[in-house]
Amino acid sequence: AQRVTQPEKLLSVFKGAPVELKCNYSYSGSPELFWYVQYSRQRLQLLLRHISRESIKGFTADLNKGETSFHLKKPFAQEEDSAMYYCALSGGFGNEKLTFGTGTRLTIIP
Amino acid sequence: SQTIHQWPATLVQPVGSPLSLECTVEGTSNPNLYWYRQAAGRGLQLLFYSVGIGQISSEVPQNLSASRPQDRQFILSSKKLLLSDSGFYLCAWRQLDRATGELFFGEGSRLTVL
What we know:
heterodimer
């Protein structure tokens, strides 16, 4: 079974402060991990994926297989980062199920 | 470019009535298709996914069913709606490509069962 856990439903951070959204997963094989974001009145969209090792809008996420985590980080929060963030896991080729966590609503305080 | 269409956008139905939500994808072939339900506090719950015509995988036993009559069409149905079926339903597609794996979502359908 594959499972994604996001322990924080709500997170409030002051503008300019660091942000960390936690994500832990459970999967017996080699997972593919993603972060998706939903801004107000917009569609859910991909923010970043671990396989690309990229930084998008200042966000990064490192896959830690030992801790089975994929936390999302940004050193300096901006007001436009306020959104709903979902961590997601896929088993990759041959396992097409994409499982999402319950999401974390991030609010940046001006 | 690829697009995904989902309709109707909103729907109000009485308990016991049937349901049909439709999703179509344009600009790609043989996509993987997904139905999710989004609920506050419960995140995105995977309901069904399909890797090809007529191939449906069900994740959660419930009052709903899904069908894929054509390569780029995915339908969510119910014969008799329950109050608990109310929610926001999202259709999504992804191409089977290990290099990307990105899921593209529709705008969603809000269902209210009275």
